[in-house]
Structures
1.
Amino acid sequence: MKWNQFQINKITSSSGEWPALLNQLKDPPKQLYFRGKWDPALFKKSLAVVGSRQMTNYGQRVLETLIPFLVAEKVTIISGFMYGIDTKAHQECLDCGGKTVAVLGGGLDVLYPPENEKLYEQIESKGIIISEYPADQQPQLWTFPQRNRIVAGLSTLGVLVIEAGEKSGSLITAELARKLKKPVFAVPGPITSSTCAGTNRLIKENKAKMVLNAGDIVGAQLIAPEAGVINHSPTENILQLLSAEPLTIDEIAFKLSLNIVEISQTLTMMAINKSVEEKNGKYYPS
């Protein structure tokens, strides 16, 4: 089925499934149009990921490092469907089997950017595409900043900024999150990169928490593991264990007091990311 053949549905602020997070906004939308299957559970553990439209290889590698771990922690990735960081965040999430929500800066019948047709169809099938605008609304300069408040509003874990210049629209989203008293996270970048000037300044001015790994975002949300293991994300705890000795899945699950299914899923993501390798039934750090 083509992207524009999916049915458009509408949810209003009076609906029982309306995301209450949006009511914290100064000017919340009165309705949202969407394609896909509406599931309020998507917003229970969600993170907005925003950044430059001119994504560099560095930004791409950051997303390929962080997103698999976030998906393993069942975090829904919310972004704005634009070029660069947005598109890569959505696609990496889907490639890892995760759930993603795209908030458009125009109507649902306006494919923008047009290169994202395949991605649009993938999200329709596995997530939700949202807009507060009528289906034929063309994106305008004012619609994207307006869209950003929904991106920030729908996140429960906060906003993660990756590669944002000094005048990036992503900084608007970060400031909206701060006003909503939500955490703002930023990945530092090279000081010689203008693409990272905004993110570096957020960290320097203490307006964002510096992120070096996924545990910096979701670590505080996790159940404390067995004594003797630091309370980081499962991926970090696994790497900590494997740094001492190679272990089987059963041994890792026992030491972390987690079920084998969870450990197996996490190890699969880590193997894809090449942070671990398996030999003769035991796992080693790569």
Note: Residues 34 and 130 are 4 Å apart (CA to CA).
2.
Amino acid sequence: MDDYAQVDDTHASGLASFVDSANDPATDFPLQNLPLGRFRRAPGDDWHLGAAIGDRVLALRDAGFVDHDDMNALMAGGVAPRIALRRALSQALRAGSERAAALSRHLVAQRDVELGVPCRIGDYTDFYTGLHHATNVGKLFRPDNPLLPNYKWVPIGYHGRASSIVASGTPVRRPRGQFKDGDAAAPAYGATRRLDYELELGAFVGAGNALGEPIPVADAGAHLFGLVLFNDWTARDVQAWEYQPLGPFLSKNFASTVSPWVVTVEALAPFRVPFARPPGDPAPLPYLDAAADRAAGAFDIVLEVWLQTAAMRAAGTPATRLMHSNFRDSYWTLAQLVAHHTATGCNLQPGDLFGTGTQSGATPDAGGSLLELSQGGRAPLTLPNGETRTFLQDGDTVTLRARCEAPGRRRIGFGECTGTIQPAAAGA
């Protein structure tokens, strides 16, 4: 599958930029990354296409790299225009570039602009690809049979709510909903008491497909644009009461947070790794299997969750890391998600978003949600300042981070995906 982006000179570890901050070893956005997003200089202004380079944003239209500010149009163009844009940006932003002086006029500090949701999201589907998460959660409710019989055969997913997906930094209001305590005679309605985060990645669709025309798994790579961090906030008590028989509804429709910069599949090429099922597990059905996907369908991406409480913030105490995991442990590849989603002939469109589902690690301390880390609320976490948490409290700030590292390669990152919990709206 040639669509599994090739490593080329834009990934060379020795490349440096005339933008000094891009050469900092700690930056998420060196010249080898060049993620894409949308920004505006003031509330109410038009959104512009940008590329992140160090701590700066390059305005792509003003600098002459595109003739529009429509991310969805760029996504619809497919692989070739995106590769051409990446190569042009890499050449122009390198140290010694003849365009350095001219481009500097179109660079603005990220701290001075508003970063938004990267594109117009028409549809959003959340999958359940985290085997360790599925097992951990299953054990809480079905200790003897944590995984349902279909889990290892079909990429489980549900259609979510696109309108409430928000950009990193947007406050998240604690939702109200209906829930039922185990020994209560009737359900109650009120602010959720079991608010949780979910550590996920989001995959944006690039070029779509016509209604009625499935995308073969061998061609699916050409329909992926790039990845973001994704926090699928969840009201666990509402979820427990409503999810049967049709799955998530109000427990997840109040907010989901995305990081603003889309790390393209081309930037991720050096961090592709082989995909393999655990020994003894069934092989995917033929429509979900391709040799190239087995060879390079997984991604080596380190994922982290950080928490800062209101008390920590008031005391000047930095956030503490709660866990880390790796996306290479996902039970299904992104190509398999595309192939399965379109197997019925469902038409994907540029800017559609796939959530990967919570990405937990194999050990108990690597849960991608508080539901797992607190064992369903039975084992509170003790934070460095002595506070405890089973679920999120008002004022808590959750930050997701991710990075890719490999020998001989420049480290790249995803930026931050952050949200702070606000009190529930007044109501009955």
Note: The chain has a mean pLDDT of 96.
3.
Amino acid sequence: MLRVTSRNNPRLAEAAGLISSSRDRRKAGRCVLEGDHLIGVYLDRGGLPESLIVVDDRLSDPRIAAIVARVPESRVLCVPSVVFAEVSTLPAAVGALAVVATPAPALPSPAGFHLLLEDVQDPGNVGAMLRTAAAAGVEQVLLSPHCAFAWAPKVLRAGQGAHFLTTIVEDVDLVAWARAFRPEGRVIATVASGGTDLYAAAIPSRVAILIGNEGAGLSAALLAEADDRLTIPMPGGAESLNAAAAAAVVLFECVRQRRLQARAGSVPHR
């Protein structure tokens, strides 16, 4: 384990640049995981960080010590809390951050349960939707080119480890993907009004759920590829839900219906 007392250390400088610059993250193909929970999930999924940076006075914390024990000593930097605070966006009490290669899978063959995000630009919303998708068992989350970067610090924090529990593919041509998927499954758009009541709709097992931009909703081009449009009933009178909240409602209605279908021994594909 290397003890470092200056932010000028090249590995610390790299971590600081990756945290502060989306351009640097994309160019380097690396991102930063902040906190023992995110790092632990990454390690559980079989990854090793390129660098693990820990606060010296947190080494006695069992959670930090457990992470350090799983990483080769040559990759671990131990720093004072004041130096850590200069690098991280979170307080030194977080105790650890890790530089890792950003997963960049090729677009896989379609699975059964998909979430498609079109131009969702708020990092917190993207992270919350990834967390919900992972919890709901979504197999693939596909993001359009103008979504918030999935591996930005705010998205990673909101995702709480979900990034490593589902397949995430960015910069996808969602219109072309939806058009190709329709012979195999059903494409369902969520709309604020005018769609079929979510709770009156039969949702098949092979499905792609579309969630649009926070303000503009889904584009006309992507809506044109939808087999169905669903609206969440809101008896309280609100016009719409936050995009992340809407995604949670729809995805877990999918979960509910899939469980009922499985119990009945009949899982419709379309």
Note: The chain is about 35% helix and 20% strand.
